[in-house]
Write a structure and sequence with these properties.
6 strands, four-stranded antiparallel β-sheet, two-stranded antiparallel sheet, alpha+beta, 2 domains, about 525 residues, disordered N terminus
Length: about 525
Amino acid sequence: MSAADDTAGSDEVDLRPLSPFDTLRRWWGPPRTYQLTRWLILRLLGVLYLSAFLGLVLQGLPLLGSHGLTPIASYLSAARVVGVGFWKLPSLFWIDATDGTLQLAAYAGVALSAAVVLGFANLPILFALWVLYSSFVHLGQDWFSFGWEIQLLETGFLCAFLAPPLDPRPLPARRPPRVVIVLLLWVVFRLMLGAGLIKMRGDPCWRELTCLDWHFESQPIPNPLSPGFHFLPHSVHAFGVLYNHLCELILPWFLLAPRRLRVAAGVLLFGFQGTLILSGNLAFLNWLTLVPILACFDDDFLRWLLPRRARGWLDRRPTAAEPARGHQIAAGALAALVAVLSLEPIGNLLSSHQAMNRSFDRFALVNTYGAFGSVGEQRDELIIEGTRDAVVGEATSWQAYELPCKPGDPLRRPCVLGPYHYRLDWLMWFAAMGTPDQYPWAVHLIAKLLEGDPSVRPLLARDPFPDAPPRFIRVERYRYRFAGYGEDAWWKRERIGEWLEPIAADDPRLDAFLRAYGWR
């Protein structure tokens, strides 16, 4: 028998040592496709962009317009005086910040977002959305100071490279670059771990498992289900805190694990965000966090969830090709940029003085995140009241203004908000913890109500003086608690003090205050 015959039929064994890349591929699992994943990610991102830009259409001018509470044009003028320019505050509105331009940008965002929701998305469309929204974020002042604003910018920028370079169809002929999927998982890792660490380093109630005993009542804007969560037994609340720690401190590490563990972590994280959506109104924070979490799920997993007819339709489609070489090179360059920009966020995660929701680069491409490092045990609300009485006294009759979602009338049912965001309602929750000097825009709001300025009416749910403004306005601070089961009201409240004493439009102190901020 020849040597050839001796070896015929035997399996050839590759005795070469595994390279680090081979080991990583074996650990991560075989290459997967993400066509359906991309479809879901871009559709949900489109919904969130649409919600954000609709908010700008409806609230942009009352907040940021020439007659708004904090005009962008005035902000830019002050920035120029101190030598701040585009590279410090990158925005298209350096070119023009008139009301017409602000509205044009908001409506353009709505149109492009709607196209993405309907299934048409490519790099130019998503890049245009990112440029438009970042123009508002960088000049939006207090109204855009929330962590989800920079989170939308980071996520939106990555998704521009997830989308096809030109082909806008819902299921284009080429697959997305896998490296962008990895970058989205990197966003989830920092989001979850940052939120978990800020809690463990912050309020002791997270370590004592008591934070949820009052969180549902004291959170910025509760929803109709929040009382039900609030009145659950302490043991359930304690379990909820433990589940929070599991999702934010342990599961992020499973994003680096083999496929089955990665998918399991994604399912648990998805459910965690769903619970947060059900229990309160956190604007579009939790909806936005679902976007990168979807990167945990590949096409095989998503196909398993589809009905048989949909799977059959997908099976009849031509197999998608690998990304074009230029797209892969661009995605690789993006990964290198993210790696460099991640150094400071990683340092922040490791720091005992961890910052929460902060950008480390001018364009907010790689950020650090966190939420509820401290949880208040009490809920204070500011109630704006006006009167037409010529003189204020004990017999004065006061009538209250109402905002769309902020607790006010104890009989009014809490609203369902997310992913839409009422910015004034949210910031009034913060203002109740401070003073008028710390929240000057609130005093500007009072001045506009005293003048009967129609520009702020879109921000209100109820104006008790629609025909003529009141003579005086005051702001009272109340402490709110959920009413118990069977009560006619949703809230119980008690007055705890005066936030702003009764003031009239012709009060010289009000005039001096507004002039100090360039608002008069």
